[in-house]
Amino acid sequence: MRRLSIFNVVSLTIGFVFLYLPIILLVIYSFNAGRSVAVWGGWSTKWYSSVFENQQLLAASWVTLKVGVLSASVATVLGTLSALALARFGRFKGRTLFSAMVYAPLVMPEVITGLSLLLLFVSLNIDRGFWTIVLSHITFTMCFVAVVVQSRLSSFDRSIEEAALDLGCTPFMTFFRITLPIILPAVISGWMLAFTLSLDDFVIASFTTGPGATTLPMKIYSDVRLGIKPEINAICSLMIAVVTVTVMIASVMTKRQEVERERAERLAVAGR
Amino acid sequence: MSAKTLGPVRRKFAPWNDRSAVPLIRIQNVSKVFGSFTAVDDVSLDIYEREFFALLGPSGCGKTTLMRMIAGFEVPTSGSITIAGQDLTDVPPHRRPVNMMFQSYALFPHMSVEKNIAFGLEMDKLPRGEIAARVEEMLHLVKLEAFAKRKPHQLSGGQRQRVALARSIAKRPKVLLLDEPLGALDKKLREETQFELLELQMTLGMTFVIVTHDQDEAMTMADRIAVMNHGQFVQISPPAELYEQPVSKYVADFIGDINLLEGRVTKNEPGTIILDSEMTGSRIEAVGESSAGMGDKVWFAVRPEKVAISLEPPRDPTINATEGTVWDIGYVGDVSVYHVRLNSGGTMRVSIANTQRVVERPISWEDKVFLTWTPDSGIVLTR
Ligand SMILES: Nc1ncnc2c1ncn2[C@@H]1O[C@H](COP(=O)(O)OP(=O)(O)OP(=O)(O)O)[C@@H](O)[C@H]1O
Ligand SMILES: [Mg+2]
Question: Which amino acid residue places its CA nearest to atom 24 of ligand 1?
Fold first, then answer.
């Protein structure tokens, strides 16, 4: 390996500082004993306990969690199915169009997605609220799941499924007994990705929400406009923790699977 | 094992010569075209119940493709396949009375060895106890009892191949398609497994279609062998016939070792054909019939073990004889193979069993030698 030159060290440091300094500051200030956001008044965890007494914040967190779990689960099913369709049914009519349509939301500006969803709900005369947020989160996270699952399917040996069919397993059962267990880690990673995306989303949620359904990012944003309270720092730190942990679990899971497979293959080659 | 030897059963078994016999698998004018490439080209074939049928041919000649069409994973571009009188065209793979062992093994990576083997039996909804007994039996058959709990990635290549074999046999299908089932096994294990397969076939009455690259394997196990090339059958015959009466140079060359002596027909009477050969510098007299006309270029095909080698000149050097110098000698276990440079520039190979008494002094490199053969030791090929 090449050694890091001074230039590399400096640019790396600047990059990381740029990325993480604001977040670190936020986390540190969430432990600030003082009322003011700008003045350090010693260590304390009192803002964390006041978060758990703030009914409005708790309600918003609960809504966010429900939206995340629900939309991630549905998006995972739909995303997995479309990945299968794209990977499997070869050159069906309109495949290119279908794949472009699945992946378009990936690059679509959120404002546009949000606005078009809003227009749809209005024109269909659907009451906006909890369920419209869930629906729109399904729409925009589904394609992320599809990408993750499809990349796993591209290295999937189809003769394994053929062997199952050959042994008398129906195509339907083959999916549940053979295909799904093998691609499961990718499906779970997809779910976690969808969940964190939904947790974070502010733009689309604010377009599609209605009375009574306030997600945490929306609540935080509206509170901050009335002045930053240390409580907000605390809840944000908690959110960062949740997201970090989920993303880490997802990547560790994929990584570990790979490492395990490699190690086992080495063992097998060594003839043990 | 019920029968004392396989001899009596095997010798009598020749349903393909019996006009009243009904084939189990009937392949009629089947072709498979991938894009613009014809992988299987208008083949027809009947395979009979309890037959051990081998497919032999160079890589890429369409063996796997043919198997996959029988198993139902490829749809023939044209033609039909029937099994036991039932047209299979619209029968999906999971409803065919056929099991296939994949060339790539296709083991289920998330299941242990025993779960892999049990999979097909579970699909048949056999009682638990019977599944366990059958798995046990299969593990014993392929000598993997100690590996029952391992996952496929924890096995060596040969072990995986045996799991794939066990998994495909476990269901005891009417027809078993084996795509190079023993290629990764060492010689001893391969021979043992060959024997086990034959025994299974005898006791369970299964029909085997096997792809192999090992000629000896095909010769020792199969009732009939089909030699394929470019998606077509070149010859379908029992092993001995394939060896003794190849229909073309291609088959003769593909099965075992052979000397092809080129010559022109000077006489073609029923029972006797005489060639003039520049290669041997003599006349070649052969028994048999041939469709060749006078003056046609043909080949006399003679196996190395049917040619005699001597340091003494033959009585009549103008017929079925030639001379040359020993260029190389190879020891192949129990036989020695002499590579002889003929005076005409060609080469011939002669193999002599090493057990034979050497009366004269042993033949050595650079010796001038005389080769002779009898009229009935080879056949005349026109293509
Ligand atoms: N799905 C496919 N699409 C295009 N070409 C194919 C496909 N499957 C097979 N072929 C081609 O058909 C030919 C025959 O392939 P096949 O697998 O039957 O060969 P094989 O006789 O089994 O060879 P080997 O002994 O190497 O296993 C090959 O040239 C291969 O490239
Ligand atoms: Mg093949």
Answer: B59
